[in-house]
Amino acid sequence: MPQQTPGPMDGVARPPAPADHLPQSVEVDRRAVSEDESRRANGPEWDRYADEYQATHGEFLGDIGFVWGPEGLTEAAAGALGEVAGRRVLEVGSGAGQCSRWVTHRGGTGIGVDLSLRQLQHSRRIDEETAVQVPSTQATATALPFRDATFDVVFSSFGALQFVADLDLAVAEVARVLRPGGRFAFSITHPTRWSFPDDPGPDGLVASQSYWDRTPYVETDPGTGTVTYVEHHRTLGDWVGLLAQHRFHLVDLLEPEWPEGHERVWGGWSATRGRLTPGTALFVADLLP
Ligand SMILES: C[S@@+](CC[C@H](N)C(=O)[O-])C[C@H]1O[C@@H](n2cnc3c(N)ncnc32)[C@H](O)[C@@H]1O
Questions:
Q1: Among 7, 24, 183, 241, which residue carries the largest CB count within 10 Å?
Q2: 119 CA to middle of ligand 1, Å?
Q3: Which pTM was predicted?
């Protein structure tokens, strides 16, 4: 797992999913990457990682559980989606559907979209184990396979948004499938983490690169030259501007604090860092009527 050494990971804040894997030797780079290339890299990457991800984090996530990030903030506590009972709710980057299953359990209609077939197979497995079904489909956040104004709520819990190059298109897609007045809530790696090495220890507290440098983080297989993983960064200001541009009214921006006694390490997320700096940003916005 060479990328977990401080050198190549300097300044990179991978999201909580792949932060603790990196199975094969890869070259790490910072360069522009297209939407196509991002998608072609991240789909197979999540297919490869899905089994380990679910084995490692499934219990923390809960089969019918909704957490917004490694701090463990639950939707029951945050209330970012508003009332879900009776609502049609789409999860973008739904993984094994834990959050959507919670929505369905609460009386909503939870539906999932994910790029990774293997993640969706886990979702189906948990559907069968819990008898709470989350209809899910394989698709990308930048081309949602739904008609206009289909959903009351769209959300993403560390899902697709930091993996897409064309974020403008992804947010436009959310706005398209939401009904006017609908709610959009999403959690991402807190943008300030981009400045720090992705290290859960004290080294992860020393800023080493520019917060304003949006050049994507790219991993490449040195044998084939194939891009195997991409992550994209936007500043807080970028997010606010993008939401406004797509006619969203920002209702809240939650920055979950690290809970007392919570010692779980998830990739670069830890008590050591979490007590001092935010690791997750949770945006809550409504589409203007
Ligand atoms: C960190 S997981 C989050 C899943 C779930 N919310 C959870 O907490 O386990 C990120 C998910 O986003 C999916 N993803 C990545 N890029 C995507 C894209 N362009 N469109 C849809 N899903 C994507 C991945 O396959 C993965 O399942």
A1: 183
A2: 8
A3: 0.93
